Amino acid sequence: MRIKSQKDFWAGLMFLVMGIAFAWGATTYNIGEGARMGPGYFPLVLGVLLAAIGAFVIFEALVVETEDGEPIGSWAWKPLVFIIGANVMFGVCLGGLPKIGIPSLGLIVGIYFLTFISAYAGEEFNWKEVVVLATVLAIISYLAFIVLLKLQFPVWPSFIGG
């Protein structure tokens, strides 16, 4: 059987592998049952669904004919580095790195870092738009996680909020 769409085949394979990994990882937790779900139930179901989607995409890539085989292009290194870096920086801002003396900078500062760093992943950067986006995201995140869900994590830098 010949691969008729390289993009779909490799994307489907990625979904399949990640779905199996999540489902397998979920089995280390108590699964429970539909009426009384354990902590592993939701990741197990999501993993199985992701694996099923991956299998379907792989099947389509092997069966449905495409014009040029949809070859995979080169790696987009710039977006990859900036998006992963933005998420790492958000984690560092939220929790700090106490072993090397970096304090927690909190949710609000973390969202600004996340937004500004990830904005560099695109082709053009408009700092005014990024400031507006970061402000809107910070307000919505504060309302959703702190006010509505009452989650307990730092909102402001530890040297300001105590």
Automatic annotation (TrEMBL):
Lineage top rank: taxon: Bacteria
Keywords (A to Z) from UniProt: Membrane, Transmembrane, Transmembrane helix
Keyword flag Transmembrane: yes
Membrane-spanning intervals of the chain: 9-29, 41-63, 75-97, 103-121, 130-149
InterPro entries with a match to the protein in the record: DUF1468
Every DUF1468 domain range: 9-154
Name the UniProt record assigns to this protein: Tripartite tricarboxylate transporter TctB family protein
